[in-house]
């Protein structure tokens, strides 16, 4: 699709700023990871803490309402807790994690951060099935036990996690994934299950090499484009500021290489992943 025909979305407000804080460095290599994160040779570098703080200060001045930390695995960043404290001085803050690095000591520190902040701290833990066998087939051996252990530790401290799952594993009995996860979390001792289901994205390790459908201006006729993440969100990642968390690090989604204020122009819907947001109502935020 030629640039002249690519539809664009206007930023309505800067509601959320995301930080791809560890780039694509992760301790797991999930087989559906949309940005192909993993422990070896990350293709997207981590962010320097000083850079994160400069963008936090700018986001504060621009009236940001939500802050998110993602990766990769954010808990691999050695300054994450200090950055969370800084972010919580600005707005409600969420960490997206696989949960495998949250032991009792870390759960204590997170609960303390939440207790001392005027804004809410949310921890989103990725679990893709309601059983260890199904989940670990996607995320790696032992990941289910560690993630559910983290959810249990946080719940015990009344820092109720949000469990986020894709539909890649499915369910063996045909029941909705949400229902299976809800039941599993209650049985695991997570007394207030909070669950977010996401579609599998056609990129990263799930790119099929032939998925090339792009959105057209005609497809957006009559569509409320304020529902798209790029209408309210910007992402700071290595190399600059990007249109949305799904496309962070991709040159075609880079909107600026300097301040946030320089990246608030219209975002092009020029990637097949944009079709998923349009078709499914996908939002990367907590709701």
Task: Give the secondary structure arrangement, pairings included.
Blueprint: E1 8-9, E2 16-20, H1 49-61, E3 66-70, H2 80-88, E4 93-97, H3 104-116, E5 121-126, H4 132-139, H5 143-156, E6 162-166, H6 177-187, E7 195-198, E8 233-237, E9 240-242, E10 254-256, E11 267-268, H7 272-280
Parallel strand pairs: 2-3, 2-8, 3-4, 4-5, 5-6, 6-7
Antiparallel strand pairs: 1-11, 8-9, 9-10
How would you describe this structure to a colleague?
Helix 1 packs parallel to helix 2 and helix 2 packs parallel to helix 3 (about 105-115). This protein has a 9-stranded mixed beta sheet, with helices on one face. The chain is globular and about 50 Å long. The mean pLDDT is about 90. It has one domain (about 15-210, about 230-265): Aldolase class I (TIM Barrel, Alpha-Beta Barrel), CATH 3.20.20. It has about 290 residues and is α/β, with parallel strands linked by helices. Helices cover about 25% and strands about 15% of the residues. It contains 7 helices and 11 strands. The chain has helices at about 50-60, 80-90, 105-115, 130-140, 145-155, 175-185, 270-280; strands spanning about 10, 15-20, 65-70, 95, 120-125, 160-165, 195-200, 235, 240, 255, 265-270.
């Amino acid at each position: 699709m030629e640039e002249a025909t690519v539809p664009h979305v206007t930023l309505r407000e800067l509601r959320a700023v995301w930080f791809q804080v560890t780039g694509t460095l992760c301790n797991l290599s999930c087989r559906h990871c949309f940005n192909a994160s993993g422990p070896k040779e990350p293709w997207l570098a981590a962010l320097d803490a000083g850079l994160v703080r400069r963008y936090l200060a700018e986001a504060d001045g621009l009236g940001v309402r939500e802050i998110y930390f993602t990766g990769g695995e954010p808990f691999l960043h050695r300054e994450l807790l200090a950055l969370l404290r800084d972010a919580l001085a600005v707005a409600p803050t969420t960490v997206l994690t696989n949960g495998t690095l949250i032991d009792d000591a870390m759960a204590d520190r997170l609960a303390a951060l939440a207790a001392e902040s005027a804004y809410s701290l949310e921890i989103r833990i990725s679990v893709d099935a309601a059983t260890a066998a199904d989940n670990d087939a996607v995320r790696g051996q032992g990941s289910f036990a560690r993630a559910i252990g983290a959810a249990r530790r946080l719940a015990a401290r009344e820092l109720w996690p949000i469990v986020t799952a894709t539909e890649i594993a499915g369910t063996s009995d045909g029941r909705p994934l949400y229902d299976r996860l809800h039941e599993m979390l209650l049985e695991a001792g997570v007394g207030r299950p909070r669950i977010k289901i996401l579609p599998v994205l056609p990129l990263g390790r799930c790119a099929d090499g032939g998925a090339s459908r792009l959105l057209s201006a005609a497809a957006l006729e009559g569509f409320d484009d304020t529902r798209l993440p790029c209408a309210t969100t910007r992402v700071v990642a290595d190399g600059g500021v990007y249109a949305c968390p799904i496309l962070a690090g991709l040159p075609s989604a880079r909107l600026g290489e300097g301040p946030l204020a320089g990246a608030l122009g219209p975002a092009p819907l020029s990637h097949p992943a944009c079709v998923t947001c349009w078709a499914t109502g996908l939002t990367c935020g907590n709701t």
